[in-house]
Automatic annotation (TrEMBL):
The chain crosses the membrane at residues 53-75, 87-108, 128-149, 161-180, 227-249, 261-283, 303-334, 355-373, 410-427, 458-484, 527-547, 559-579, 591-611, 647-670, 690-715. Belongs to the binding-protein-dependent transport system permease family. It is a multi-pass membrane protein. Signal peptide: none annotated. It comes from the Bacteria. The keyword Isomerase does not apply. This is ABC transporter permease.
Length: 743
C-alpha cells in the first residue's frame, strides 16, 4: 500500500495545484501558449478556482470541501476497506457535482428556467471549464479508482481500475454526451430555450419522407433516397470485394500482388477525388463522354450527376475496404471442410455454395455493414456528383451553413441518419448472435483450398478484370488532371497547379512556404500525427482491458465502444458542434476538437485489432510478469506491447489515413486557424479550381504512402522464435559446435 499511498499523494498535489494555481476556466489563447500567466492578474476569469470564490462563484466551495475531505480521509485513516469506501464515495459525489454545476450554470447564469424559479437569478455565470476544473475532475475520478482498489476490486490494481473509469468517462464525454446534445438540440430554439415546433415541423416534412416516386428517384424523400443508395452501395461493394478476395486466393490470377496494391489506393485517396475523376471521364465535358458523342452523335447529357454517379463513386471508394475485410475470411475457411464435402461426392459448385459461402457469413455481414455506414456518412462524393439529388449528409451540411440556417432541421436529419446506421448495426449483431462459424481447430489439414467451379471462376474474371481497368482509368484521370491547364478546355501540360499550391521561395535568408496549400497541409499533418498515436494507445488499452480483465459490465462496455463505429461522421460533426460550442466544455475552433473527433471516431478499429491480436497471447505471459513483481503498466510496456506490433501498426496506419482523408465530420469542425486538407480541397472544388484540388490530393497520397512506410520502420515487426523438427539437426549441430568452442 505504500506505493499506492505515494500515487495518491501525487494526485492530491495535482488537485491542490489545480485549485490554487491553474486557471479554473477556459483560456481563449490556449492553455499551452502560457500567455495566461502574464494576463492572470488583469483578467478575473483566468484566476484559479480558490480566487473565483471571491468573484461571486460561491458554488465552487462545495467541490473544494469535498476535495479537502478526501485529503483528511487520507491523513486520518489507515489504508483499508473503510477508507476505500469513503474515498470512492467522495470521488463519485465530486464527479457528480462537477457535471451538475457545469451543465446547470452557463456564462449568463442558470441554464434551466426551473433553477431560476427555485433559487432566483444567478449572477455571475461561468465560462467553460479550464485546466483547473478538468484536473480536479480527473482527481475525483482517480479517487473512485483508488477507493475501489483499497476495497480489493480488480485485486487491488488501481491502474486497471483507473483505466476502466477513465475510458468510461472519455467515451461518455466524447461519444454519448454529443449525441444527447444533438437530440436536445432538435427541441431547442436559437437561444437554447425549449421549443418542439422545429422538431415537429421537420420530422413531418414531406421532403424527408415522401414516397411519391420510384425508389431512388429525384422526388423521393431524402431519407428513403439515402437508405436506398446505402443498401445498393453496400451490396455492390460487398459482392465486388468478395469477387476480388476469391480471385486473389482461389485462382491463378497472374497479378495478385498488383491486385492487392490496387485495393489500397482508394483507401488513401481523399473521398471526393474519385468523384472529380469520374466527372473528368463521364461528366458533361468528360473525355469518354466526348468520344462517345463524337462516334455516335448521341448527347449523354448530365446522366452522371445524381444517384447513379454517387453510387459508382461510392462503390469505387468502398470496395477496397470490403476486400480487406473479406480476404482474411476467405483464407480462413478450413480446407478440411471443403475436402469433407468433396469426399461425400459433392461437386465443386455445391461445395462452394453449401460449405464455403455460408462459413464466410460473418465477413460478408461485416463488409455489408461497413459499406452501408460508409455510404450513409459519405459527404464528398454526393457533394461533387449529387446535383439536385441530395442525401442526408449533404442536407445536414446545408442546414448548418446554408443561406437559411436551421439547427433543428440539421439535428432531426442527423437523428434519422443515426437511426438507420444503428439499426443496421444491431440487426447484424442479432443475425450473427448464437451462430458458430469456427473452422480452424487444432487438427491439421492439407492447407489447400478447393478450386472454384470453372464457370464461377470465369464469371469472377469477367467482373474483376474490367473493374481493374476502370479503376486504373479513374486514377489515370486523377494524375492527368493535375498536369493540364484547364480540364475540358485546355489540355496543355503544365506544373502551374503544383507550383501554386506548394511553391517554396528563399526570402531574406530563410525558406518561405509561399504556396496556397501549405497552411492547411501543415495543420493536417500536425493533427494527424498527434491523433494517430493517441488513437492507437486508447484502442490498445481498451483491448487489453476487454481481453485480460474481468469486470462488471464488460460486455456493455465493449458494445458501447463499438457502437461509436456505427455513428456516421456527419452525425459526429453536427453533434460535436452542438455539444462543444458552449460550456461546460467549449472546444469549437480549436485543434483539440479535431483530435478528439479522430481519436474516438477511429478508436473501434484499434480496439478490434488489439482484441484479435491479444487473444492470441497466452495469459500466462502477463501473469508471470506480475508474479515477478511488475505492475500492470510495466507488464503492458515490456511484455504485451512488443508482441502487439502488427496491431499497433494497423491502428497507427488506419488512424493516420482517416485523419487525413476524413471529410464528413471535419467539414463541420474546421476553422480559419485550423483548416484541414480535405475541407480546403472541398473549397477548391466549389470554386471550380479542379487542377489545384487534384494536385493537392496527389501530394497527400504520396505523403501518406511515405508516412505509412515510416510507421512500419518505427514500429518494426514482431519477432517470435520457432523451431520445428526439420531445423532440429541444424540446431543440435550449432549447439555442439558452441560446446566444442567453449571447451
Amino acid at each position: 500500500m505504500t506505493r499506492e499511498n505515494r500515487r495518491l499523494d501525487v494526485m492530491f498535489g495535482l488537485g491542490l495545484a489545480a485549485i490554487c494555481l491553474l486557471p479554473w476556466y477556459r483560456v481563449e489563447g490556449g492553455f499551452f501558449s502560457l500567455q495566461w500567466i502574464g494576463e492572470m492578474a488583469g483578467e478575473p476569469d483566468l484566476n484559479p478556482g480558490l480566487l473565483q470564490l471571491f468573484l461571486g462563484r460561491s458554488w465552487l466551495l462545495i467541490a473544494f470541501i469535498l476535495f479537502a475531505a478526501a485529503i483528511a480521509t487520507r491523513v486520518s485513516m489507515p489504508a483499508g476497506k473503510v477508507r476505500g469506501a469513503r474515498l470512492a464515495l467522495i470521488g463519485a459525489v465530486g464527479v457528480g457535482f462537477m457535471i451538475l454545476q457545469g451543465l446547470a450554470i452557463t456564462l449568463w447564469g442558470w441554464a434551466w428556467s426551473l433553477n431560476e424559479t427555485l433559487f432566483g437569478p444567478l449572477d455571475p455565470g461561468q465560462p467553460a471549464f479550464g485546466a483547473g476544473a478538468l484536473i480536479l475532475s480527473l482527481g475525483f475520478l482517480a479517487l473512485i479508482a483508488y477507493g475501489f482498489a483499497e476495497r480489493g476490486a480488480m485485486k487491488g490494481d488501481a491502474f486497471t481500475l483507473g483505466s476502466i473509469i477513465l475510458l468510461i468517462a472519455l467515451v461518455g464525454v466524447f461519444v454519448f454526451y454529443p449525441i444527447i446534445s444533438m437530440f436536445a438540440g432538435s427541441f431547442q430554439d436559437f437561444d437554447g430555450s425549449f421549443n418542439p415546433d422545429g422538431f415537429i415541423r421537420n420530422i413531418q416534412d414531406p421532403a424527408i419522407w415522401s414516397l411519391d416516386c420510384v425508389i431512388g428517384g429525384a422526388r423521393c424523400g431524402v431519407a428513403w433516397r439515402t437508405l436506398f443508395l446505402a443498401v445498393m452501395t453496400a451490396s455492390a461493394s460487398t459482392l465486388l470485394g468478395l469477387a476480388f478476395a476469391l480471385v486473389a486466393t482461389r485462382t491463378r490470377f497472374p497479378a495478385k500482388k498488383g491486385l492487392r496494391l490496387l485495393t489500397i489506393l482508394p483507401i488513401i485517396t481523399p473521398p471526393f477525388v474519385i468523384g472529380l475523376a469520374l466527372t473528368m471521364m463521364l461528366g458533361r465535358s468528360g473525355l469518354v463522354t466526348g468520344w462517345i458523342e463524337a462516334l455516335t452523335g448521341i448527347e449523354l447529357g448530365r446522366w452522371l450527376y445524381g444517384l447513379t454517379g454517387i453510387w459508382i463513386a461510392q462503390v469505387l471508394s468502398f470496395t477496397p475496404i470490403s476486400f480487406l475485410v473479406l480476404i482474411g475470411v476467405v483464407e480462413g475457411v478450413s480446407p478440411s471442410m471443403e475436402e469433407a464435402s468433396q469426399t461425400l461426392r459433392a461437386g465443386r459448385w455445391r461445395t462452394f455454395r453449401k460449405v464455403s459461402l455460408p462459413l464466410m457469413a460473418p465477413g460478408l455481414a461485416n463488409a455489408f455493414l461497413i459499406g452501408f455506414i460508409e455510404s450513409m456518412a459519405d459527404f464528398g462524393n454526393p457533394l461533387v456528383l449529387g446535383g439536385s439529388h441530395g442525401v442526408l449528409s449533404t442536407e445536414i451540411f446545408f442546414a448548418v451553413v446554408g443561406a437559411q440556417t436551421d439547427p433543428s432541421r440539421a439535428a432531426v436529419l442527423a437523428i434519422i441518419l443515426l437511426t438507420f446506421t444503428l439499426s443496421a448495426f444491431l440487426l447484424q449483431r442479432v443475425w450473427l448472435a448464437g451462430r458458430n462459424f469456427a473452422t480452424v481447430t487444432g487438427k491439421g489439414d492439407s492447407g489447400k483450398h478447393a478450386a472454384l467451379p470453372g464457370p464461377l471462376a470465369a464469371l469472377l474474371y469477367a467482373i474483376v478484370v474490367p473493374w481493374i481497368i476502370f479503376t486504373l482509368a479513374v486514377y489515370g484521370m486523377i494524375i492527368f488532371g493535375g498536369f493540364v491547364t484547364t480540364w475540358g478546355l485546355d489540355h496543355t501540360l503544365t506544373l502551374e497547379h503544383y507550383a501554386r499550391g506548394f511553391s517554396v521561395e528563399w526570402r531574406e535568408g530563410a525558406l518561405a512556404w509561399t504556396g496556397v496549400a501549405w497552411d492547411s497541409f501543415w495543420t493536417t499533418m500536425e493533427i494527424a500525427l498527434i491523433a494517430a498515436p493517441l488513437t492507437a494507445a486508447v484502442g490498445l488499452l481498451t483491448a487489453y482491458l476487454i481481453v485480460r480483465q474481468n469486470f462488471f459490465g464488460r460486455n456493455a462496455f465493449e458494445f458501447a465502444l463499438m457502437m461509436s463505429f456505427a455513428i456516421p461522421g456527419t452525425v459526429i460533426g453536427i453533434s460535436y458542434i452542438m455539444a462543444f460550442n458552449l460550456p461546460p466544455i467549449e472546444m469549437t475552433g480549436t485543434a483539440l476538437i479535431l483530435i478528439a473527433c479522430f481519436v474516438f471516431r477511429n478508436m473501434p478499429v484499434g480496439v478490434r485489432g488489439g482484441v484479435a491480436a491479444m487473444s492470441q497471447l497466452d495469459k500466462s505471459l502477463d501473469e508471470a510478469s506480475i508474479t515477478l513483481g511488475a505492475g500492470s503498466p510495466r507488464t503492458i510496456r515490456r511484455v504485451i506491447l512488443p508482441l502487439l506490433r502488427p496491431a499497433i501498426m494497423a491502428a497507427l496506419v488506419y488512424s493516420f489515413v482517416r485523419a487525413i482523408t476524413s471529410i464528413s465530420a471535419v467539414i463541420f469542425l474546421v476553422s480559419a486557424k485550423y483548416n484541414m486538407a480535405t475541407a480546403y480541397i472541398v473549397g477548391l472544388v466549389e470554386n471550380g479550381e479542379y487542377g489545384i484540388a487534384i494536385a493537392y490530393s496527389s501530394v497527400l497520397i504520396l505523403v501518406m504512402i511515405t508516412v505509412i512506410g515510416g510507421f512500419q520502420l518505427l514500429v518494426g515487426e514482431r519477432r517470435l522464435r520457432r523451431e520445428n523438427a526439420v531445423s532440429r539437426p541444424a540446431a543440435e549441430k550449432r549447439a555442439q559446435s558452441s560446446l566444442e568452442a567453449k571447451a
